[in-house]
Amino acid sequence: MQTKAQQTKHDFSTGPYIERDTKGNETYSEYGDGYWVKREYDDKGNETYFEESRGYWQNFEYDAKGNQTYFEDSDGYWIKREYDAKGNETYYEDSYEYWEKSEYDAKGNETYRETSNGYWVKSEYNAKGNRTYRETSKGYWAKSEFDDKGNEINYEIGKK
Question: Sorting pLDDT into bands at 50, 70 and 90, what band is 19?
């Protein structure tokens, strides 16, 4: 069976053979050595499928806002993600049993993150969104002060 490039008698001296959809997304590419890549996209232009000639593939899923919610590949690896209404990632989990949970304030600043290995970090911010305090599960803390222009003018670190 002939490849697409062979069917069109593509001259590889000018570069790879490439096909695009009506939005300009690359849907197929083929190289002189016979290696090829196929891609599919959703209506928003997000890549939903990737496959290459050696048998490796990837699937992607997205929420209505275009945030990637799921990934899987032919090696059995997967990732799940959840987001809040503002698009901040609130949950991450993968097939290696690793996870992260995050919380955000009304301005989208991450105020808390916890991971499956027991690590956590808490953060506080000023009205301008500058992080003024950070504390970790390992007992470390950091304090920052900022001038009216948002420039950091003092930084302290320590351990409880």
Answer: very high
**Placement of tokens 């000023």 in the chain:** 126
Whether 153 contacts 147, CB under 8 Å:
yes
Q: Which CA distances in Å does 14 have to 17, 31, 64, 71, 107? A: 9, 11, 39, 34, 50
Q: What is the pTM of this model?
A: 0.84
Pair of tokens at residue 124: 């506080």
Is the separation of the CB atoms in 103 and 121 below 8 Å?
A: no
Where residue 152 falls (left for φ over 0; alpha for ψ -120 to 50; beta otherwise) is beta
The pLDDT-based confidence of 61 (bands split at 50, 70, 90) is very high
**Total residue length of the chain:** 160
Residue whose entry in the numeric block shows the structure tokens 């097939």: 95
Q: CA 99, 125, 107: angle at the middle one, nearest 5?
A: 75
Rounded mean pLDDT of 112-135? 97
